[in-house]
Amino acid sequence: MSAKNNSNKCLYCGACVGVCPVSAITLKDTRIFINEKCINCGACVNICPVSAMKLDKK
Ligand code: SF4
Ligand code: SF4
Q1: What are phi and psi of 17, to 5 degrees?
Q2: Does 55 map to a domain?
């Protein structure tokens, strides 16, 4: 399980990148990458000003 980014909403502000406790998020140009280190903690979901992050509930 990992967080998912909605690229239609994302503003690429970088707030989620800074808040992730395991540095799982990378912002490159206008794309957000979430790698396998994600522990589904929800910090990025909570910090995002436009609710572009969601937890993957499998
Ligand atoms: S905090 Fe939200 S808007 Fe900002 S880069 Fe992350 S997903 Fe995008
Ligand atoms: S859910 Fe937590 S661990 Fe996963 S990308 Fe967001 S802040 Fe990082």
Answers
A1: -60, -45
A2: no
